[in-house]
User: Which sequence fits this backbone?
C-alpha cells in the first residue's frame, strides 16, 4: 500500500464527469454560431460590443470578489463569461462603449452579487443589464444599425428600427400589415439573420443550432424553449387569424426580436429557471403569454426580456408549488 | 419498450470487469471474525464461550428478538476470542473469533452439492428453517428473511419478485450465481412459492446480463408461474420499491412495505441460500463476493466464508495496488468505505471494491447552480438540494415535511451534481439527527 492514507468518505464513491464548469462552457460553445453570424452582419461593431461586455463582466466579477467580498475568485467558472456574451447579444452593435460597461456593472454587481453570487441570483444578470440600459438610455438602445452585407465599419451603418419596431409603429399610425409587410425583411431573411436588431437576435438558424447542441449535451431540456415558442406561436396565431391586417403573423413573431434567443438561452438559464419539468412548462407558458401581451399592448415592441424577468421573480413560488411527485404518495397505488 | 421505473435514475459506468470470472472457492481462512450484528435489527446473543470447539453450522449467536436472526459458525475450529473489532460499519462491534482447525476434515468437505429437486418439508417447516438458519437478504440490506416471509392473514400477496437486477456498478456476484446456480435458484423459487402459496414469480434481471436472462428463459420454458423479465439498465433498479414499480407498475406507499402492494421481494443470493438451507440443511455460512477494481491484477468472484478478513481476498487477487486510496465494502454507489483490510466479510458483503488514487478524490464542492439535475434523477421524487439546505440550516421539521425520511440513500443526487455538492452526506446526517430527536421525544 502507498503511504498515502486510505480515504474514508461516504457513498457514492463514483461521480459523473459533468462539472458546472463544463456545463457553462457548453453554453459558450452553443453561442458561437450566433456570434459568427453577428460578425458577418454587423462587422467590427459586433466584435467591439461583445469584447467590451465580456471583458467588463469578467473584470467586475474579479474586482468584486477580490476587493469587496475578499473571497477567492471564480471568474474561470464561465458564468460571467456567459453573462457578458448574452448581454452583448441583447445590445445594438453601435452602442457607446461606456454604456456597455455600465450595463455589465449592473449585470454583475447588482443582479448577481447583491443576491450573493452565482446560484443565489433571482434574475438573469444579462437581462437585468439589458433592461437597465433600455430604461436608462431608450434612444441609444433602440437605434439599430441595419444589416449591411459584409459591413466592416460602424461608420456606414444605417440605423433603423427592428422589424417588430416597424410593425408596432406602423400599426400605431393605422397602417395595415399588407402595407407594413413591404418594409420588413422576408421570413427567410429573418430566419437566416440578415436583418436589423441587437447582436444575437439575428439568426434564428444559428440560435436554434446552438440550442439543439445544448439539448443534446443535456445542459438544458426541451421543455422551456419548445413550450415558450409554441405558446408565442399559438397566441400570435389566434390574433393573426382574428385580424390579419392588424396583427403580424406568428412566423414574424417567432423569427424577429428576442424570442428564439430568449427561449434557448435566457429563459433556460439554470439558476433562474424552475427545477422541475412541470415547473418549467408553467414558467415557459407564462413567458410566452407575457411576451405576446407586452408586444401587443405594451409600450415596447419587444417583450421577451421583460417577460423572462417577470417570471424569474415567480420561480421560487413555482418551485414551491410544482414539486416533483413524491414516490409512494399516490393513494390509489393498491393492488390493481 | 423495455421495462424500467419511470422517475429518476442514472446510468453510471458499469465496469463489470468480473462478469466472465467463474466463482472460485477461497482458501480456508486461518481465523474467522464473525460479528454478531450482521443484519438489520437487534444484534444476536453470543451462546459460545472461549476455548469451545465448534463445527461448521453450529449456532454461535442466537436471534434475540423479532427482527434478529441466528449466526452459525462458518468453520470447524476453536473459539479463541470474544472481542470487539472494527467491522464494516467503522465501529467496534462484538465479534466471535474462531481459529480454523486445519486438520478437521469437515472443513474441506466439498460443498458442491448435487442438485436436489424434490421438496420434502412442509410449508411450516420451510419457514421455520429459514428462520433457524440465519438467512438474511444478501443483496446488501440484510433484512432477516423470515420477517419478510411472515405473511399475515389479511396480506393478499400475489407476486414473488426475485431480484437479480444487480444494478450497482462493478458487482457481479449475483450475475455469476445466476449463471452457475440457475437450477438451484429455480428450485429455491419453487420452495418459496410452495411455502408462501404465491402462484406467480418474476425474476427481474437487467439487460446487461443477457446470458443470465437467456439461461433462465431456457430453463423456465415449461415452468408455470415463473416469468423472466429483462429490464432496462438503470440505477437504482435493484431497490425494492423501484423494482416493483418496474415490473408490476405498483407503487409501494410512503412508509409502506412491498407487502402493502401484494409483493415479496427476495434477492437471488438469498434464494440460493434458502435452497441450500431447505434441501441440504445448510445454514448461511458463506456467500459470493466480487473482489474488484480497475487497478487490481486479477479481480474475481469468490465463495467466501462469513468472517473472512478482507485481507485474505485481496491477497488472492494479487494484493493491494500501490495507488490504492479507498477500499469499499459493497458497490461504488451504496457501499461503505472501510479503514483497512482487517474488516471481516459479513452476510451483507456483496463486493469489495478497490479504488485508486485518481478516482478516489472527491472534488471540491461549489455553489449550487440550481440546475435541477438532482431533482431530475431522484427516484423517490425528492428535492435533494432543498433537503441539503434544510439540514444545513437545521430546519429538521421542514425537512421531514419535505419527505427526507423517504430517501433511499441511493446516491444518485450526489453522483450527478455538477457542482459536486455532498447532497447525500447532508441528507444522511439530517436523517440521523431526526431519528435521534424522534426517539428522544418518545
Ligand atoms: S435524495 Fe435520496 S433517494 Fe433521492 S437521489 Fe438522493 S440519495 Fe437517492
Ligand atoms: S444537482 Fe447540484 S447544482 Fe444542481 S440543483 Fe442539485 S445541488 Fe444544485
Assistant:
Amino acid at each position: 500500500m502507498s503511504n498515502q492514507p486510505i480515504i474514508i468518505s461516504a457513498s457514492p464513491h463514483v461521480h459523473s464527469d459533468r462539472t458546472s464548469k463544463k456545463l457553462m462552457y457548453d453554453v459558450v460553445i452553443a453561442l458561437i454560431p450566433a456570434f459568427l453570424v453577428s460578425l458577418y452582419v454587423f462587422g467590427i461593431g459586433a466584435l467591439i460590443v461583445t469584447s467590451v461586455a465580456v471583458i467588463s463582466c469578467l473584470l467586475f466579477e474579479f474586482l468584486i470578489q477580490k476587493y469587496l467580498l475578499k473571497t477567492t475568485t471564480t471568474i474561470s467558472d464561465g458564468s460571467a463569461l456567459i453573462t457578458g456574451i448574452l448581454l452583448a447579444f441583447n445590445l445594438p452593435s453601435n452602442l457607446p462603449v461606456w454604456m456597455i460597461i455600465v450595463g455589465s456593472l449592473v449585470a454583475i454587481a447588482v443582479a448577481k452579487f447583491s443576491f450573493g453570487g452565482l446560484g443565489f441570483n433571482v434574475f438573469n444578470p444579462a437581462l437585468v443589464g439589458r433592461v437597465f440600459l433600455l430604461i436608462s438610455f431608450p434612444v441609444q438602445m433602440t437605434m439599430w444599425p441595419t444589416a449591411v452585407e459584409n459591413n466592416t465599419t460602424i461608420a456606414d451603418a444605417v440605423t433603423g428600427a427592428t422589424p417588430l419596431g416597424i410593425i408596432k409603429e406602423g400599426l400605431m399610425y393605422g397602417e395595415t400589415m399588407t402595407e407594413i409587410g413591404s418594409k420588413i425583411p422576408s421570413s427567410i431573411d429573418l430566419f437566416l439573420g440578415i436583418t436589423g436588431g441587437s447582436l444575437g437576435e439575428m439568426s434564428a438558424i444559428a440560435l436554434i443550432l446552438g440550442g439543439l447542441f445544448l439539448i443534446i449535451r443535456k445542459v438544458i431540456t426541451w421543455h422551456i424553449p419548445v413550450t415558450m415558442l409554441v405558446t408565442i406561436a399559438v397566441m400570435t396565431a389566434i390574433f393573426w387569424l382574428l385580424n390579419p391586417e392588424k396583427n403580424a403573423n406568428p412566423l414574424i413573431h417567432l423569427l424577429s426580436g428576442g424570442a428564439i434567443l430568449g427561449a434557448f438561452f435566457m429563459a433556460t438559464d439554470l439558476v433562474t429557471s424552475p427545477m422541475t419539468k412541470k415547473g418549467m412548462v408553467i414558467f415557459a407558458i407564462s413567458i410566452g403569454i407575457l411576451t405576446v401581451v407586452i408586444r401587443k399592448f405594451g409600450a415596447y415592441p419587444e417583450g421577451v426580456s421583460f417577460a423572462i424577468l417577470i417570471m424569474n421573480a415567480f420561480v421560487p413560488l413555482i418551485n414551491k408549488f410544482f414539486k416533483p411527485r413524491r414516490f409512494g404518495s399516490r393513494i390509489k397505488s393498491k393492488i390493481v | 419498450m423495455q421495462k424500467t421505473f419511470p422517475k429518476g435514475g442514472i446510468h453510471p459506468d458499469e465496469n463489470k470487469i468480473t462478469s466472465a470470472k467463474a466463482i472460485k472457492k477461497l482458501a480456508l481462512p486461518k481465523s474467522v471474525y464473525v460479528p454478531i450484528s450482521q443484519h438489520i435489527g437487534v444484534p444476536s446473543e453470543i451462546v459460545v464461550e472461549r476455548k469451545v470447539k465448534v463445527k461448521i453450522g453450529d449456532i454461535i449467536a442466537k436471534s434475540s428478538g423479532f427482527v434478529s436472526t441466528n449466526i452459525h459458525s462458518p468453520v470447524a475450529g476453536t473459539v479463541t476470542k470474544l472481542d470487539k473489532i472494527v467491522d464494516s460499519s467503522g465501529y467496534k462491534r462484538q465479534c466471535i473469533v474462531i481459529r480454523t482447525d486445519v486438520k478437521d476434515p469437515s472443513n474441506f468437505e466439498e460443498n458442491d452439492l448435487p442438485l436436489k429437486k424434490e421438496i420434502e418439508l412442509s410449508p411450516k417447516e420451510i419457514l421455520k428453517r429459514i428462520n433457524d438458519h440465519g438467512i438474511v437478504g444478501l443483496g446488501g440490506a440484510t433484512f432477516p428473511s423470515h420477517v419478510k416471509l411472515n405473511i399475515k392473514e389479511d396480506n393478499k400477496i400475489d407476486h414473488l419478485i426475485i431480484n437479480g437486477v444487480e444494478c450497482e456498478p462493478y458487482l457481479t456476484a449475483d450475475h455469476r450465481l445466476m449463471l452457475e446456480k440457475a437450477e438451484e435458484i429455480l428450485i429455491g423459487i419453487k420452495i418459496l412459492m410452495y411455502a408462501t402459496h404465491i402462484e406467480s414469480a418474476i425474476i427481474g434481471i437487467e439487460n446487461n446480463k443477457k446470458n443470465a436472462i437467456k439461461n433462465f428463459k431456457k430453463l423456465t420454458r415449461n415452468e408455470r408461474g415463473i416469468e423472466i423479465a429483462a429490464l432496462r439498465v438503470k440505477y437504482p433498479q435493484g431497490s425494492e420499491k423501484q423494482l416493483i414499480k418496474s415490473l408490476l407498475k405498483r407503487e409501494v406507499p410512503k412508509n409502506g412495505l412491498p407487502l402493502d402492494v401484494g409483493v415479496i421481494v427476495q434477492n437471488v443470493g438469498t434464494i440460493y441460500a434458502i435452497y441450500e438451507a431447505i434441501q441440504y440443511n445448510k445454514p448461511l455460512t458463506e456467500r459470493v463476493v466480487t473482489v474488484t477494481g480497475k487497478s487490481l491484477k486479477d479481480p474475481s468472484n469468490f465463495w467466501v466464508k462469513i468472517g473472512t478478513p478482507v485481507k485474505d481476498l485481496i491477497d488472492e487477487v494479487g494484493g493491494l495496488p500501490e495507488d490504492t486510496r479507498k477500499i469499499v465494502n459493497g458497490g461504488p454507489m451504496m457501499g461503505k468505505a472501510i479503514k483497512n483490510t482487517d474488516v471481516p466479510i459479513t452476510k451483507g458483503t456483496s463486493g469489495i471494491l478497490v479504488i485508486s488514487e485518481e478516482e478516489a478524490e472527491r472534488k471540491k464542492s461549489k455553489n449550487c447552480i440550481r440546475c435541477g439535475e438532482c431533482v431530475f434523477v431522484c427516484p423517490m421524487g425528492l428535492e435533494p438540494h432543498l433537503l441539503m439546505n434544510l439540514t444545513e440550516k437545521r430546519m429538521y421539521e421542514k425537512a421531514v415535511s419535505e419527505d427526507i425520511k423517504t430517501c433511499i440513500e441511493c446516491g444518485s443526487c450526489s453522483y450527478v451534481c455538477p457542482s459536486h455538492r455532498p447532497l447525500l452526506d447532508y441528507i444522511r446526517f439530517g436523517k440521523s439527527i431526526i431519528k435521534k430527536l424522534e426517539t428522544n421525544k418518545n
